[in-house]
């Protein structure tokens, strides 16, 4: 197979990598081509709708619970589908990209679920797109192993698929293109490609092995986007002759607009719904993005100060649990991003206590499980949820009827404690630059200062800088945050970065400046990064792959 060839109407543009023909079979390409033909126009319409909604918010129209869907919220009779095999107990979920080492470590971690991530912790270069699909197939075939450059061997420990964490794949969001696959010269949707290839190759095998094709749906902004996913599920199951309702999907509530439509999102996906997740970092980014020009009442302090105990975050998470349990769905809590440092016991102990406190709050609030970013955190989270759940697989029967839906509380940031500091401003600059640089080299999950940073945290970092500049914010000492001040700090922080042959720091700085220091505000940092990535690095990487 060679670059720039067309199979079943889909043009494959990059130079080939090893074994891609196992993924890009004529039949698989025909399948995703049908998905594109059926759903791409609607996807494009919904992307335009996002801009319309965002413009209304920018002009002062606050989101509210929808009047036109009131009957869905007030109808007590409907529930989502019963819990699917392997999704009954989700008390600890580990997240991570689908490279071979991470795949094996996640599946050996002792967690109940692995979020196999093709989105925020993965860079969508061609190697990652194809190898992620190959690795997920290799798990089902028990043919996956890995040997590190140091000679350490990694192998799966479970005897069968049901002995391992349940695999839940997170495809890319609706907004991201897949520019390596073209139909009539137009890039396909990354979401359609990731979902379609995984579903086509693995759905029937998963069912045979006692599991099913399960997905996490990212960046959803409203119930109409959930309806699009549901319609694609129905179509895909019919195409492969798989019973309706076999697919299950958990939607990340990680945009502020989706928080006002949680029950409607569950309703649209009800035959395929596995619940909702509180995607805390992207949620904070979404608030900044949507309200960035709305004045000082929407300014947030340093990122490290915006914890889950902030009143607006409490409103979001408690209303999420209520919505899920009212409809028989699982409610999954947010990420513990700490990366243990085995060389610093004091740092570890302090951080682990924070993780324990965070997970205890979630379990006490009624969540059925929660996320961790590192295998060493699985025992901590497991201990907390074991203490709450005992022998029960979940606490969906805890209805949280004490929580009242309150749309105003979701966007009331006034009770958020903390301040804007120069240290926080510098950290935003550093994290954004270091993350973008790593992303451009193909790594979307980056350990920085003992935290696992992904695209969401980089988005917070650059969007806070943009907002602080444009809203004339001041650091706690009273000094204004101006573009000139940020440029000076950027120069200082850039000079501290550890340079090496082949680094992408210059490109990362350009992208940061374009997304944080200019008048316009790119909707997503990953889009200009993806374009840069395609233009000037990938061809060299792929030729040597």
What labels would you give this structure?
single chain; 545 residues; alpha/beta; eight-stranded parallel β-sheet; 19 helices; globular
Helix content: 40-55%
**Count of helical segments?**
19
The radius of gyration is 22 Å
The tally of beta strands, per DSSP, is 16
Low-confidence regions: 537-545
Can you summarize the main beta sheet?
8 strands, parallel
- Gross morphology is globular
Largest sheet, spatial ordering of strands = 7-4-3-14-13-12-11-10
Q: What does the oligomeric state look like here? A: single chain
Question: What is the mean predicted local confidence, pLDDT?
Answer: 95
> What percentage of amino acids are in beta strands?
5-15%
Structural class: alpha/beta
**End-to-end separation:** 14 Å
Polypeptide structure, described:
The chain is an alpha/beta fold and 545 residues long. The chain has helices spanning 20-23, 26-58, 70-74, 100-107, 126-140, 190-208, 223-240, 262-268, 280-291, 311-326, 345-365, 378-389, 407-410, 422-440, 455-470, 483-495, 505-516, 526-536, 538-543; strands at residues 5-7, 10-12, 92-97, 113-117, 145-147, 153-155, 166-170, 177-183, 186-189, 214-217, 248-253, 273-278, 330-336, 369-372, 446-448, 451-453. 46% of the residues lie in helices and 13% in strands. The strands form four sheets. Strands 7-4-3-14-13-12-11-10 form an eight-stranded parallel β-sheet. It has a four-stranded antiparallel β-sheet with strand order 1-2-8-9. Strands 5-6 form a two-stranded antiparallel ribbon. α7 packs parallel to α8 and α14 packs across α15 (455-470). The chain is globular, with a radius of gyration of 22 Å. The two termini are 14 Å apart.
